[in-house]
TrEMBL record:
Protein name: arylamine N-acetyltransferase
Family label: Belongs to the arylamine N-acetyltransferase family.
Xref: PANTHER family: ARYLAMINE N-ACETYLTRANSFERASE 1, N-HYDROXYARYLAMINE O-ACETYLTRANSFERASE
Keywords, ordered alphabetically: Acyltransferase, Transferase
InterPro entries: Arylamine_N-AcTrfase, Arylamine_NAT_domain_sf, Papain-like_cys_pep_sf
Xref: Gene3D superfamilies: 3.30.2140.20
Keyword Transferase carried by entry: yes
Native source organism of the sequence: Characodon lateralis
Pfam families the record matches: Acetyltransf_2
EC code: 2.3.1.5
């Protein structure tokens, strides 16, 4: 494990020891544009560990992505190695079915302190809820990015990340009423407290998310790659290319079914993922929005 390999993976050519907001912002954006958000291992018969060396080998050396317990964990290691002051936190993801935050603290995020200011770093949420750049931890401030306007709201001990998005325009009428299409303009993404966490806090949740029949990740195989104009994502056998059109106030969703014969090509050519084992795509009914 070394920073040079990681920087080659994401295409970063700056200094390794510059601890400032510009460096954090650039590395954050390069990471989300290069390393996909994906949970394909559990649909290939592979077990996802929280061993940092395993994660490094997978995400940096093996043309793979990962979920937050891998990708964000790796990102935190990178920031510490560079000299940033970081704090690992846990968060609860909003579930629109129960109209509340899920009970489990499943999502790993970081706070980064620079020159007396604090920023939220999260390189592994995926789809249109993915922030491309760190968000300043300040309540109520609109922070526009490619995907829309993000906002952190402080409610006492709890902080909430929310987003206001644009109107979705679905190209293929077959998917106009798809449950994957988000129709809510402003929605909550997750909530968190400022209580520091260690990696041990997430190991039980990692096991649950990989084994429980109620887990999003056992029900859906997901691979999402951010792009300079939006993102590409494969959910089961539904492949979508989403293009942000802020000047028109819309997001264009080009969605289609692919065949299992097309899986490898789409993964390699469109999503930059190369699998060692056969993927068993899954898209069972559970709450998930692009």
């Amino acid at each position: 494990m070394n920073l040079e390999e990681y920087f080659q993976r994401i295409g970063f050519h700056g200094p390794h020891d510059k601890v400032d907001l510009a460096s954090l912002t650039l590395i954050h954006k390069l990471h989300v544009m290069t390393i996909p958000f994906e949970n394909l291992s559990m649909h290939c018969g592979e077990w996802v560990t929280m061993d940092l060396e395993d994660i490094f080998n997978k995400l940096v050396r093996s043309s793979r992505g990962g979920w937050c317990l891998e990708s964000n964990y790796l990102f935190g290691w990178v920031l510490r190695e560079m000299g940033f002051k970081v704090t690992m936190l846990s968060s609860k993801v909003f579930n629109s079915v129960i109209n509340d935050f899920a009970p489990g603290e499943d999502h790993l995020i970081y706070l980064v302190e620079i020159d007396g200011k604090v920023y939220l770093a999260d390189v592994s949420f995926g789809v249109s809820s993915q922030i491309w750049e760190p968000l300043e931890l300040i309540s109520g401030k609109d922070q526009p990015q490619g995907a829309g306007v993000f906002r952190l709201i402080n409610k006492g001990e709890i902080w909430i990340l929310e987003k206001t998005c644009r109107k979705p325009v679905v190209v293929n009428p077959e998917f106009a009423s798809s449950s994957l299409v988000n129709k809510v303009q402003t929605f909550q993404i997750y909530c968190f407290t400022l209580e520091p966490r260690g990696v041990e806090h997430f190991k039980e949740r990692s096991h649950f998310l990989q084994t429980s029949p109620t887990s999003l990740f056992t029900n859906k195989s997901i691979c999402c790659q951010q792009t300079p104009t939006g993102f590409k994502v494969l959910v089961g056998l539904i492949y979508s290319v989403v293009t942000y059109k802020p000047e028109e106030g819309v997001d264009i969703l080009d969605m289609r079914y692919i065949t299992e014969d097309e899986l490898d090509e789409v993964l390699k050519e469109q999503l930059n993922v190369r699998l060692q084992k056969k993927l068993m795509p899954s898209n069972k009914k559970t709450c998930y929005k692009l």
